[in-house]
Design brief:
alpha/beta; Aminopeptidase; 12-stranded mixed β-sheet; 26% strand
């Protein structure tokens, strides 16, 4: 499935995401030389509807059209087919950011392709890895790491002082690449926002100019570190809405405004319908069901049991069904 090229197609500098299927045959890895030989590995469009990373790298490469990159760049343009349709992934595909080594998927062509990518970047002695994403709810720009390691924290803090450590979901790019080099996932807000594209472009440029990643600790005042402790899903059999009362679970309108806010216990997040009590699916890092640890129903109201901070809560029904409602976090102090 993977196409590998050693030069930049000129048309790539101006094409819209929707036009990529007419330019690229499919998932494409592009190796570009630079003054420093150890490459920065950058992946974009692992989710086809998250376009900011592609446009950021496109703008960066236009800037370097007639000059040498400060460091070699290996650019992976992921789900080209889904990007052409503005979808996270197609019905015939797995999620491209759940198919990397460590995945729960079986033997799929996409799984083999992601292993091939990791092997290639290992052989090329990648300097660092950056996976660029958007989200659908209201969130700040933030970086994610899968190892609490000073080099990873420096790479993350270069983008944002807000850093999230997580080890689930499995099969994500940054977790697979963390065994090769310092790796981060970058969350650039919603697609289509000019600031998100500019911020991501500046960040990739800064990464290309790095000579090393320090091993000394990041100053505590330069980073707010959080740990994702649970993933929240709505089971397929549970109907839900953000306003319609004729469902199993009616969630508060504007739920995504609660992201990255520390909520006190007894915060109301929604109400159950007239039928049986609907359960959210809430699993911790070990895959254990922990609904009662974080939520309870008091009559019709769905309440938080303890103080918690949500992230990536979304109002997008497709994303909720394909992935999750969001995540729960707690503060984590670096050692």
């Amino acid at each position: 499935m993977l196409k590998i090229i050693e030069n930049l197609p000129p048309e790539l500098l101006d094409v819209a995401v929707e036009g990529l299927p007419g330019l690229l045959d499919g998932p494409t890895l592009i190796h570009l030389p630079g003054r420093e030989p150890a490459p920065l590995f950058v992946s974009v469009l692992l989710h086809g509807n998250e376009s900011t990373g592609f446009y950021a790298v496109q703008a960066l490469l236009r800037d370097y059209r007639s000059r040498e990159l400060p460091r070699a760049l290996s650019l992976f343009i992921g789900n080209v087919a889904a990007a052409g349709e503005g979808r996270r992934y197609l019905d015939s595909q797995p999620d491209y950011n759940r198919a990397w080594p460590g995945t729960e998927f079986g033997d799929l062509p996409e799984v083999r392709m992601m292993q091939q990518l990791v092997d290639i970047m290992t052989a090329r002695q990648a300097f660092a890895s950056v996976d660029l994403h958007n989200n659908t709810g209201i969130n700040p720009h933030y970086a994610c790491i899968n190892r609490v390691d000073n080099r990873f924290l420096h790479l993350a803090a270069l983008f944002s002082r807000t850093v999230v450590y997580f080890i689930r979901p499995l099969g994500v790019q940054s977790m697979a690449m963390s065994g090769v080099c310092p790796a981060v996932t970058i969350e650039c807000g919603k697609p289509g926002q000019k600031y998100g594209t500019e911020h991501a472009r500046e960040y990739i440029d800064a990464c290309l100019h790095l000579h090393e990643l320090p091993e000394h600790p990041v100053a505590s005042h330069d980073v707010d570190l959080f740990h994702t402790v649970a993933i929240v899903k709505i089971p397929p059999e549970v109907s839900f809405s953000f306003g319609n009362v004729d469902v199993d679970l009616r969630l508060v309108e504007g739920l995504d405004h609660l992201n990255f806010r520390e909520l006190p216990a007894e915060t109301v997040l929604g109400w159950r319908g007239s039928g049986a009590e609907p359960r959210l699916s809430v699993h911790d890092d070990n895959g254990m069901e922990v609904f009662e640890h974080y939520f309870r129903f008091n009559g019709e109201a769905l309440l938080t049991v303890r103080p918690l901070m949500p992230s990536m809560f979304t109002l997008d029904e497709t994303i909720i069904r394909q992935d999750c409602l969001g995540y729960l976090m707690e503060r984590l102090l670096p050692e």
